[in-house]
Amino acid sequence: MSFRPPADLADGRSVRWRALEGDGLEHLTVRAQANGLRAEATVVGERDGSRFGASYRIDCDADFTVRSFEVATTDGRGLAMTRRDGAWHDGERGLLPAFDGCVDIDLSATPFTNTLPIRRLAWEIGHQRRIAMLFVPFDSFEPFVTEQVYTCLAPRLFRFETADGSFTAELPVDEDGLVMDYPCLFQRL
């Protein structure tokens, strides 16, 4: 299976998704840099009757391995974490061993973070992978570990499942590995 090389993102690529639950919109730009990739986005939305506005930045190696991320809301809350030598750190608590083993992150308000394991790992049709994720909910910004299962169903089509089986979605992706449609949650504009 092939995706466009990350270097093809040197001039940047911008996409937008709309939320299918409540009101919401995301504008994302992914750009290749000398030392990898940077994704930056602004998200406005509504969850459980509460409106929010946030921005995030994710820095990755060229293979989509996350090095650092920052999330900040318009009301002043936020979280910034860095991964060095396989260990996660933040500015307030220092070393965070609870997240050892997590390479990928999942920010709850965006489909972009599904791109990270899809692009980072080599896939063949039928391959299935169980992945420990550093999950960041946008209501609390208190990260925790969750397990997710990805299965390659066809070129550029993946099944995403929570490890407990409570949620499943088929995710078609484009030539850059960006989600086109996330049933019940997001749709690309």
Automatic annotation (TrEMBL):
It comes from Bosea lupini. This is Uncharacterized protein. InterPro entries: Glycolipid-bd_prot_put. It comes from the Bacteria.
